[in-house]
Structures are given as structure tokens and as C-alpha cells.
Amino acid sequence: MGTPSPSPWAVLALTLALVGLWAPCVVSRQPNFIVILADDVGWGDLGANWAETKETPHLDQLAAEGTRFVDFHSAASTCSPSRASLLTGRLGVRNGVTHNFAISSLGGLPLNETTLAEVLREAGYSTGAIGKWHLGHHGRHHPNSRGFDYYFGIPYSHDMGCTDSPGYNLPPCPPCARHGAAARVARKDCYTEVALPLLENITIVQQPVELGSLARRYTEEAVRFIQRARSGHPLSPVSALARVGRHRRGGKERWKGHLSLPTLEVSPAVLLSLMGTFLSLAGDNGPWAQKCELAGRLGPFVGAWQRQRGGSSAKQTTWEGGHRVPALVYWPGRVPAGRTSHALLSILDIFPTLVALAGAALPPSRRFDGLDVSPALFGWSDVGHKVLLHPNSGAAGKVGGIEALRLAQYKVFYTTGRGAVACDGSTGPAERHQPPLIFNLDRDLQEQEPLDVASREYQAVLPVISRAYAQALQDIAADNVSVADYSQDPAAIPCCNVQLVGCRCHGAHGATQDPHMEKRTPRLCL
Questions:
Q1: Is 190 an active-site residue?
Q2: Which of 73, 76, 322, 519 has fewest C-beta within 10 Å?
Q3: Whole-prediction pTM value?
Q4: How many folded domains does the chain comprise?
Q5: What is the pLDDT of residues 139-150, one digit of tens each?
Q6: How far apart (Å, rounded) are the C-alpha atoms in residues 70 and 63?
Q7: Of residues 25, 73, 79, 138, which has the active-site annotation?
């Protein structure tokens, strides 16, 4: 009897996460997918983008052997909306996710939204998600109910629960209490009551999670998932698929935004199997300026106009530094090596592009903001979006609202202002702009000097922008849109032992508890 063909797989890596989608590429020629989404990573955090960055040699090697996209954007400038757009190909004003979910959220990504994992699983893929989720963890909003066969990770951000070894905040948050609430000192920007949990599917395997070993665990689980999906065709020569962890900059530890892929030393047989694997890396939004030297690098996209008035021009904002993120694709034999693309692309495009590459169909009865950008991927074209919308993400205007956009080289703002805190604590004034601010990014990557409204260039481009903006809003208004449930209930907080302070698991003292230990006690996330 012949050896059964492995089914295709897809792995999604969300902010320190890996998600995998694996398909039977031998028979169906469907590619395998590895999608890595890095949390709070600046455009300049990739050495291939910014010469000052020296911490990403393996990613730089992937960029050299694949294609780098330098005009690539997140679909929002904060966590939950960006992830929702990756999994749906739709902006928050369509899929309902306009701001972040809380640890006590009852809802999540609306259940009537079809995820990328659901489409690919229907097409025969094994699907896995590893890392930060942040799209709802209660009930049917858990990743296992949203198309993922396997999940290993934290249900929301690292800073949304205490740990025993915090170290990435400024100043560091206090560690979890062990014997009583009095052991901790409350601070406004630190979660103080419930420890950060680590989940394997619906089971809490560690609470609080040990951050120091989390990157290694993510790597190990990603490799295990692929090995299982390949049905006895192990990738043992691959020491790791991705590693996200700490490094020191200026004497300070950084936990977010830096990934490295170890050198792949593989046999010819494994190399042939990887020929059918598509790997992509992108950021979920720009760096968190409030974290000062612990934040990532913006590169040239400093949002000088906003900085001159106070406030951040990075995460949570619609300035380039908030949503222009590093991106690369590595696919030996399919994606050109050593190429740099200037096509205007977005995280929104991952959904329709992977669906097309898998030979599947887009979900009906809804409109998509993402495009199938296969021509740009394969080097046949360098054309992407004609218009790209940038939703409000907390710094100005109604969250999720569309008050900034890009048309060709022109960046347009109808609203700027307060909400995103800079390193110095400033926020800047809230301002409405009518007529809008317009920057020509071909001449002004720093977004320092808007066009003079009386100039010939401004007067020529304003009518085109106004028409494009009106048409985009009309398209959204005519669409089948969803509404997310943002209600909260303390009962929705993941807790493996309500009898212990901070929901601490028995015996879970940092790295002493290994989630792969056979004798561990399963603790359900209820």
C-alpha cells in the first residue's frame, strides 16, 4: 500500500504566534502556509528595512531570499482590529471589531464572520494558531471554534495579566501575588488581579505563564503541529520555525516586536517539501511609543507634523508609523528572491490571496477590503490598492471610523489628535481638518509638511480624493456588516483555580510546570 499523502496545513502566527495551514500538496498541489504576525513591530525593526537594526539577521536572510514589501500596512493600528482583518479580509467597520477586547469580554470576532481558517479547513487544510489571539476567548469565540484545529498561546496581550517575571513595561509591573492581594501595589497601567494564562486548546496549562520560556514553547508547538499535519513526514532537521523573545537594547529587555528565524539546516528531502510552503511575515501595527526605549523603530515614518504638536505618531494612530509595517514573503521557486516591491498592500490582502492560492472560494454575501495580490507576489506586477483606508484606532475620532486614507502617493487626514501617548507623556490636541490635510509621501515620508491648500497640486488632487473617499464610505454603508459584542462579565475571565490568588494553578511557579508533562492536571477554560 502507498503512503497516505499529508494534508495541506496552515499555521498562523499572531503576535508572537504561529498559525499553520497545511494541505496535501503532493496530490493537490495546494501550498502549505505559514503566516507570522508580529506584535507592535515597527517598520524599522527589520534590518533589511533599516540599517540601524542589527537584531534580525535571520529575517534579513529570508528577505534576501524572498520578496520584501516596503509599502505594506496593517488594517488598524491596534491589536484586535488588525487580527480580525487578517482573518476576514475586511475592515473593522465591516467585521465589527473596531477596538480591543478585554480579559472579561463575553464576545469576540462576530460569529457570522467567516475566518481564513474556516475557509482553508473546508478546502482540506489542517489549521493551527500559536501565540496571542485577542479575538475573544469566551465560549464560541475561542480559536478552536473559529476554524483552528489546534491552538497554543495566550488569549490576549502580555500586559493584560500579571506574571511572576514581568520585565517589558516601563516601569516594570509588579509580579503576581502569591499569598494575598496586599502583596501587590496597584498601578493604573498594570493588570493586578488575574495572572496571564497559557492555553493549549481549551485547557489552561499554566497560569501565570512563564514569559522567559514562552518563545521556545511557541517554536516547539509550531514544529509539533507541522509534524502531525504531515502525517509521519517529520521536519526534525528544522530546529525552529520562528522565535519571538527578549533581547536587550540599551540595557533594557524588550519582549515585543522582535523575531528571529534560526538558519534552516535541512536535508534535500525536507528542502523539497518546503518548496510547497508559503511563509509570510508582517506586523500587526506600529510600535507602542509610550514604552519609550522599549518600543520599536519607526524608520523614517516619524509623523513629524503630529510630533511637533505633542503625542505619538505610532501605534493607535493613522500616521504612517502606526500602520506601515515590515512585510516579507518567502516561497522558494515561486516568489522572486532578492526583490523589493513598492506595491501598496495590506494585511487585508492575506485572506483573499491565500484563499486563491489554495483554490478555494471567498465567502458569499459580503464585500472584502483585501485583494488577491498574487501578481505582486510573483513579481508579475507592482500594483496594489488604488485606495487604502486607515481606520481610527484610538488616537482620534470614533474608533473604527474612516477618517484617513491613502490614494497613490497621497496621504489624507480628516482627523488628527489626542489619544496616543508619546514617550514624554504628551497626547497633542484633537483636530478636525476640513479641507483635509494632504501629504505627498513621495517627497515627505516623515509627514512633516502638508500640501498648501492654495497650491496647484492640492487643488488638482482634492476632487479625486473626495470622490474616492465618498465611494468608499458608500460601499461600506451598502455592505452586510457585523457588530461585535463588547459586553463584559468577570465570569468570562480565564481562571484555572478561583480559590487561589490571581487564579494561580497549583504548582505553576514559572517554568517549573511544563505543559507537556504527562501528569499535569487539565484545567478547563470555562
A1: no
A2: 519
A3: 0.88
A4: 1
A5: 999 999 999 999
A6: 11
A7: 79
